[in-house]
Fold this sequence. Notes:
single chain; alpha/beta; Transcription Regulator spoIIAA; three-stranded parallel β-sheet; two-stranded parallel ribbon; 4 helices; 5 strands; about 20% strand; globular
Amino acid sequence: VGGEVDLSTAPALREQLESLIAGGARDLVVNLEQVAFMDSSGLGVLVAVQKRLAEAGGRMALVCREGPTLKVLAITGLDRVFPVHASVADAVAS
């Protein structure tokens, strides 16, 4: 995922993640390292997908180091809802 995740792009992210779940994925790693901006609609997509995965016995981890996206996750408390990792390798290993 890269660029901005906002009202205009969040539906595409939701569609992409939902299609992975529909295809049988139960554990997802969402790499947010290239995301420069995320608003509440993007956060809403992450929460909704996490809820759907949890209901199916799955889980979702986020990859996000320093920067504005991690700050938004921390401010909203979502860094305590989602496992947040510094790299894809760390997320996959957990």
